[in-house]
Write the structure tokens for this entry.
Amino acid sequence: MVSLTINGKVVRAEEGEYLLAVIRRMGIDVPALCDHAAVEPYGGCRLCMVEITKESWDGWKNYVTACLYPAEQDLIVNTHSEKVIELRTSLLDLFLARNPETPLIQKLAADHGLTKTSFEVVPEPNDCILCGICTRVCDEMGFAAISMVNRGHGREVAPPLNEAPPDCVGCLACAQACPTNYIKFEDIGTTRKIWGREFELLTCEKTGRPTITREFAAFLSKHRDIPEEYFKVNDEAHRDELASTMGRITRWSVQEETK
Amino acid sequence: MRIESEKQLRDYRKKLADADKKLTKKIMVCHGPGCLASGAEKVSEEFEKQLKRKKITGVTVGSIKKTGCHSFCEKSPLVAIEPAQILYTRVKVKDVAEIIEKSIKGDEIIERLVYHDPHSNDAIPKYPDIPFYKHQTRIALRNLGKINACDIDDYIRVGGYEAAAKALLKMTPEGVIDEVTKANLRGRGGGGFPAGRKWKSCRAVESDVRYVVCNGDEGDPGAFMDRAIMEGDPHTVLEGMIIAAFAVGAKDGYIYVREEYPLAVVNLQKAIEQAEAIGLLGDNILGTDFSLHLHINRGAGAFVCGESSALMLSVAGNVGEPRAKYIRSVVKGLWDKPTVLNNVETYANVPMIIANGADWFTSVGAPKNAGTKAFSLVGKVRHTGLIEVPMGTPLRTIIYDIGGGILKDRPFKAVQTGGPSGGCLAEQHLDLSVDFDTLTKHGSMMGSGGMIVMDDRTCMVDVAKYFLSFLVSESCGKCIPCREGLYQLHKLAIAISEGRAQESDIEKMEHLSEMVVTGSLCGLGKSGPNPFLSTIANFRDEYLTHIRDHKCSAGVCKELIKYEIDAEKCDGCMACIAACAFNAISGKKTKPHVIDQELCTKCGACVAACTREAIMVL
Amino acid sequence: MNSRFVVKPELCIGCRTCELACSFAHAKNGRPGRSRIFVLGGGFKDLFVPVTCLQCEEAACAKSCLVNAITRNPETGAMDLDHDKCVRCMACIAACPFGCSLFDEQQELVIKCDLCGGDPACAKFCPTKALEYKPVTVRALRPAI
């Protein structure tokens, strides 16, 4: 354990624990757009920047992303110093130039007193904030079906060669984890469309309702040891099955007892 | 044959030296990038052909050495005749016969081929007397132009692998680190971090595996020092890496070579094979327990991969994107193992430090900035080329003595050091000494060693715009400040160069720059606004003229200039009319011509075509 | 940790108090209305069975989770789902053979029984003791004969 000071309060933290976790535990609100618990910290959005110093640093201050900076003994952290807020505001100004119509960005910017970007809005703005959560989640799950393509300002999320991604299983994790709902998908009947690829959804033998894609189920059976028959019915039918099994056991044990 | 002891190495070196002494004349044909581009290969072939035909005592085909960059690129292709130290410049195939007749068979000097002083027009036949060479001190580039690039025997002959043998057989790893620390060798890739300290911290981390990595991803526009070393003296890189690996305890090393340097890859590969074949690399080097395997990785054309953490990810097969370095790569680097990463030039210095000692090294250069630094001197300077000077050499010496001054003796305006994310220094900085600390203090940086000289026809807004556009397209795009911030800076710079900006935009750019510097993830982003920051610091007036007066004093920014013909100077030769692709110039023969401003695209073709300098840029 | 749900369907009167208790107990995550326990017909007339997560030893939900969002809580013994980690791929819902990982459409969250941190509200409110949460020995876990 180490002890450090955050916004004037002395707190204890595990050595090596990232500052953002400690800050959040204290209930301090620091914006972070590229942070997702399922994946390693990234340091892309820069909004969680905080000011750090130490008594021994002779007044020198550094600005670091809390999501990646490990807690250290005697560290003095300020999450809302004037400079930090100015930094965050400028960052959001840049975000607004790229994602002017994105509610999440508009909200955060408004919290920092910005309603309109002071820069030139990019041509063809969209809702993608390039936080990389989708691609990192996809990597983490073991598919790596989509990734960041192009460099610099032309960066975007895309499947390989912008074709239907062969490694995608249609689990929708990318779309579900996307903080701005930029990733679009469509479920019509038993067909799912995402990233330009069509998937067939398995249907419950009893209720006829769609569950997950055939590819995803096959993946889980093969790599995660889930018996294929589990995927034949949906959760509702599974519960009914469990209820009637327990019912049969109850009926049988009550009969045994009365004998 | 494997060399397994110091004595064997010494004996082998003596044998090679004796054989070399039998050659009375040696013909050094520079095979550096500049000379190859100007036809050096044909010249050396011609020498070979003619030498085969003519029998000259003491001179064989083996006397021709295809050397690495001899460095006076301006005058390429270069042929040096050793041991007389005669340098022939701009040698053509048709000159070969004459050189053989006069300078190889005889001892005559062909005056029309030697260097002439641009002012006095005196012939200077011996290269050590040429000002370009006279002010240089060569440590990292010591073998360039002196040995066959791809010949380990030639390298051993001039003392190669002596330092490796000394380190491995007579020193302890700690001893090597101490020596390098004492020599105060600072990272030549631009950061200037002491190599000794880096090695020491890497060795101190407990780990079963450690790596040494060589950064040969030289991406700065106009820089070619590392290229010259990798292509022209690959063994010195290997030797430096062997010593580093021995010091930190690494068994594997990676050389990351820029995609655009295929010859460097070929030569390094050859060098590795040659060194492995005689037991100077691979398992049990020089008969000791120490083994090192070196591997070559080719980049894929991303500038950002020159950044150490991105480079390591790229070596490991991932997308080259920087990561936060709050945990340093000496602790957690390549494949999360402790890793020492140094630049090509840093490694090239290491053998000399070990061989000659730290005291010798610190005797060269400036306080806290020991040794030398290689630069590629380019731009509007008379003598472009590869140079190496002691740290602390004044900019003026580099530009006026070595570089021979500004082309056409125009006024000097600025010098850009440190690559795209470096900065521009102005006339008042000409007497600054070139070292890590001084350059950084004045808003530029050493960088890997690009040095671009600019004259009064260079617009500083345009320079900032160019480097920003380079950085915008080379930013990896991972973090917002660099991706969006530099993009917006570039947009604003364009607005200024097109006369659409307001004065408040400068303030906005300064504010944004400060944010990008503080907020960016890696060094590329943190130094990204430098092209703007250093030009605004030294050339604020020029920015203001663009904004207030809508004028580009250097005559570069197309939106703010127009071409007009000086009727007094124009003799009506019609050359400009022929050159204009847009039929914007009209006029009759012998009568002054006129440019139609509506049709003119300001391409400048007329200016180039005019023989009387009658076309004015307003 | 040694506590288990002890279910006696013969005592269940189908009043659904457990469902109500569950949805209020988890109202901190949103609105009440979606319970993690279900009172279902047991296949015989007038036989109701309260069904909820069994916190399996080798849980299919955890195995199917590709981001390790479902882990055993060492204090309560429950298979807890970390909502921050969950990417809502629905693998656990499809994989659970008892249908006890659920999707809450309103909150757009995957939910499952978390034993209310060791003191399940459902059992506490059961008026007939058809559902109890109490320490049991391994022998008692088998059907009484």
